[in-house]
């Protein structure tokens, strides 16, 4: 008889992984979130989108935010980016309160936010020119960012000539060209097909490794969060609060083969327990629409 396969605890870390976290926690705090809350007044009453979020993101960390729909993931990232304002608490970037948008924070969203009338190079140069730089230095800087995201040769293409994954790489290059202290990514790969999405995840890990940047990444995809992150901030809904912070025990460098490693599976199981707790959703029988004979029934 074979022994029952037992997953390790998602808290079990190899010495190498524990050492990586020790190093990470010894780095300076990049962003400190202190008691951050947000309520919205609507015609139906008050919605508490976020309540008392406390969390610190360390320099060069990759953090993902995950949670059920409506738990406040986008609201959180928008407030940290300075695009919306908290109704309580505050966020500090390198010790300074966030009071509005700024070039020290980059954003990449799910929708392709490139200017369709500008070439790849001009899209990447846009932020640099806004900051007052000009001339050949800007152009060569833009070229080097285009190279970093693997799009050399496409400098003069227009967004309409690129695939979805390529457009998102341009959006990443444009955000990084401003040299942000932190990059916020809100479901950046949500609109991509599964194959392009996994390629983009691998690209993003390479870019993160090669560029001095800290990343906060919102996703619905549990595997994506585990594959990319150092830690996962799990939120719960109504009101949006921190449910758990998971230190991902999967060693780096990450590879797709790790998706079936015991550490990966244990982390996935824990995330599923947190996000889809048993009994939270009653299994509903869907109505049967009989369009075939009983002998054609399937299970
Ligand atoms: N501008 C707004 N006015 C009123 N309520 C809002 C507004 N923006 C967000 N909310 C509410 O705040 C809560 C959190 O919304 P948010 O979009 O941040 O959640 P989310 O976790 O990103 O959701 P999803 O996973 O579905 O994208 C929801 O209940 C939402 O209805």
UniProtKB/TrEMBL annotation:
Entry's Gene Ontology molecular function annotations: ATP binding; ATP hydrolysis activity
Ranges of residues in domain ABC transporter: 31-262
Keyword Nucleotide-binding: yes
This protein's record includes keyword Kinase: no
Family annotation (Gene3D superfamilies): P-loop containing nucleotide triphosphate hydrolases
InterPro entries: AAA+_ATPase, ABC_transporter-like_ATP-bd, ABC_transporter-like_CS, ABC_transporter_ATP-bind, P-loop_NTPase
Keywords of this entry: ATP-binding, Nucleotide-binding, Transport
PROSITE patterns tied to this protein: ABC_TRANSPORTER_1, ABC_TRANSPORTER_2
Protein name: ABC transporter ATP-binding protein
Organism: Puniceicoccus vermicola
């Amino acid at each position: 008889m074979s022994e029952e396969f037992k997953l390790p605890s998602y808290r079990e870390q190899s010495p190498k992984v524990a050492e990586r976290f020790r190093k990470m926690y010894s780095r300076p705090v990049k962003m400190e979130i202190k008691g951050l809350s947000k309520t919205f007044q609507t015609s139906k009453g008050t919605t508490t989108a976020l309540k008392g979020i406390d969390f610190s993101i360390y320099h060069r960390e990759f953090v993902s935010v995950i949670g059920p729909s409506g738990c406040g993931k986008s609201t959180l990232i928008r407030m940290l980016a300075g695009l919306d304002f908290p109704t309580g608490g505050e966020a500090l970037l390198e010790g300074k309160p966030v009071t509005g948008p700024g070039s020290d924070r980059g954003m990449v969203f799910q929708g392709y936010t490139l200017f369709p009338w500008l070439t790849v190079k001009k899209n990447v140069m846009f932020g640099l020119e806004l900051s007052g730089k000009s001339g050949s230095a800007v152009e060569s800087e833009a070229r080097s960012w285009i190279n970093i995201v693997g799009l050399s040769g496409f400098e003069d293409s227009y967004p309409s000539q690129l695939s979805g994954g390529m457009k998102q790489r341009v959006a990443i290059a444009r955000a990084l060209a401003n040299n942000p202290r932190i990059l916020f990514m809100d479901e950046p790969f949500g609109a991509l097909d599964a194959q392009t999405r996994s390629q983009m995840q691998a690209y993003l890990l390479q870019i993160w490794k090669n560029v001095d940047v800290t990343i906060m990444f919102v996703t619905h995809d549990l595997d994506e969060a585990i594959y990319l992150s150092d830690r996962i901030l799990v939120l719960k809904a109504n009101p949006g609060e921190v449910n758990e912070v998971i230190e991902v025990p999967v060693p780096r460098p990450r590879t797709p083969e790790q998706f079936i490693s015991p550490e990966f599976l244990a982390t996935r199981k824990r995330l599923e327990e947190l996000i889809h707790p048993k009994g939270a959703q009653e299994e509903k029988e869907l109505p049967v629409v009989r369009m075939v004979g009983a002998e054609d029934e399937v299970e």
